[in-house]
Design a protein that fits this description.
The chain is α/β, with parallel strands linked by helices. It has twelve helices and eight strands. The chain starts with a helix and ends with a helix.
Length: 257
């Protein structure tokens, strides 16, 4: 049976709504209020980044926020300890790297997420072929293991990614790290279309979706978007209120006919 995140996303998609998932770096000053601002302004879920010292998928903006959090003494557990107090109605996912799962072990990490009230997890450096131990532990604790599909994936790989994925499929918009870009890469909509053709699970585009206009473009093909660098930059520059204003702007754009 689908978990909470996938169930809600499917219901919203069925009702004609496009899905919006902002990313917030856990542990950065003001991150809790930023998540509340996202929830209050139309986000359908929030992806909480658990800072890690070697973030291979993160570009300069998110790296800077993660480094600041680490230097302030943030740990995976200190982020998770704050989650129950966020008091938001939307599902919350975490994004981090497999080293932080491997260290305590998949079973313990999944149990920690469950206790915190986390619905799903994204581990971008965990290959599909090595994902069984994590996915098994996640499933046992009700955590949806979101899988990533890369634009370079051959056609015969995508059904295997889709079959393993829970919650939604993270359609990686372009090769490279996260960050804001002047235009949406063609690969973003191309891959989303390829995934939509082979699965009915929700497909969300992330990496390189940099503003409201690009979010609109991506959601003409995909079911939704994940936005990281453009959200975190606003948190760092002007604080949680500006995050809420930006999420409201993107929400209005993707809701347009």
């Amino acid at each position: 049976m689908p978990g909470r995140l996938e169930t809600e996303f499917r219901a919203k998609r069925e009702a004609g709504r496009k899905l919006l998932v902002p990313y917030i770096t856990g542990g950065y000053p003001g991150w809790q209020d930023a998540i509340r601002a996202c929830a209050a302004n139309g986000a359908d879920a929030v992806e909480i980044g658990i800072p890690f010292s070697d973030p291979v998928m993160d570009g300069p903006v998110i790296q800077q926020a993660s480094q600041a959090a680490l230097e302030a003494g943030v740990t995976p557990q200190s982020v998770l300890d704050e989650v129950p107090g966020l008091d938001v109605e939307i599902p919350l996912a975490v994004m981090t790297y497999y080293n932080l799962v491997h260290h305590p072990g998949p079973e313990r990490f999944a149990a920690n997420l469950q206790r915190a009230g986390i619905a799903a997890a994204i581990l971008p450096d965990l290959p599909l072929e090595e994902s069984d131990p994590w996915c098994t532990a996640a499933e046992a604790h009700g955590i949806e293991a979101i899988m990533l599909a890369a634009p370079t994936a051959p056609d015969d790989r995508l059904p295997r990614v889709a079959e393993r994925a829970r919650g939604f499929i993270y359609s990686v918009g372009l090769l490279g790290v996260t960050g804001e870009r002047s235009s949406l890469a063609e690969t973003a909509t191309d891959l989303a279309a390829r995934l939509k053709a082979i699965t009915d699970k929700p497909v969300l585009v992330g990496v390189g979706v940099s503003n409201a206009e690009q979010a609109y473009q991506a959601t003409r093909v995909a079911d939704g978007v994940i936005q990281g660098a453009s959200v975190v930059r606003r948190l760092m520059e002007t604080g949680p209120d500006s995050v809420g204003e930006y999420v409201a702007e993107v929400r209005a754009a993707i809701d347009a006919d």
